[in-house]
Every structure is written in C-alpha cells, then in structure tokens.
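During the reporting period the student researcher (J.K.) took over the structure-prediction task from the postdoctoral fellow and processed the backlog of single-chain submissions. One of the processed entries is reproduced below for the supervisory committee.
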Amino acid sequence: MRLSYGSSRKKHTFTGSIDEVFAGIRDYDSYPEYLPGVTQVQVLPAQETGSICQVRYDLNLVKKFYYILNMYEESPHKIWWDLAESNLMKENAGSWTLKGAKKASTEANYQLEVKFKGLIPSAVTDKIAKANLPAMFAGFQELIDSKR
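J.K. obtained the following structure tokens:
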C-alpha cells in the first residue's frame, strides 16, 4: 500500500449493522479517543455545496500535521471526502462504502488517495500507510462497539 503519491483500497468487515458502522465512522468527535495518531478533531460548518460539514484533524504520526476535509454522505451506505486545507498534504480524497453483509456484520470498502507537499521521508509515509491502517480499523471497531 502506497500513500505518498497514489491510491489504496482496502476491504474490511466490521462487527455491527450497517447503521452502527455508519454511525461510528461519522462520529468524528470521538476519533481522538479511538484512532491512533489523532490528537484533536474539530467539526466545522460546511463550505462546499453538498457537503454536510468540514472536519479538521490534528495528527501526530511521526510528524505533527493537520488537514481539513469537506465531508459528504449518503446514509447509511457511503461517506466520502476531499481536501479543503492542509499544512502537509496537497491531496486527500477518499471514501467508505458500506454494505450489510449479515445482520451483525458490515463489509466496508475503504479508498484513499493522498499526495503530500514536497519530499516526505519514506518513514513518514510507511508509518501512515502500513503501520497505521490495521490499528485504524481496530480503533473504528472499538468506536462502533462503544455505541452499543
């Protein structure tokens, strides 16, 4: 998986109904409690047509940085975003597409395209791309479970 200049896709099955998974993913205010590296989140008013809000993420993953995303959704099947502003990224676009697999599980397709400004050391991109993704899915599962 390469995030420095490119895209990635990952399928994951969460325990929980599609409504529970959707609610967990869109609970942006809880991200610092459950997702590794996320130190602060601020939900802001929408600035783009069709957007439901903007979300500012402050992260500390090898390096401290922030980004603001325009968030869009089609409840309970899809959440997607594009980059509004960042001090490190020049592109961040992605989505969660959800499909109820069984009564108690949901298949999630996660897609992300990221480009960083300037030359970013491979240690930073590797940390974000490889080490953080499994922990991110585990954090989302904990967040989903906390809402039951």
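The committee noted the following: Residues 36 and 82 are 21 Å apart (CA to CA).
J.K. will present the remaining backlog at the next meeting.
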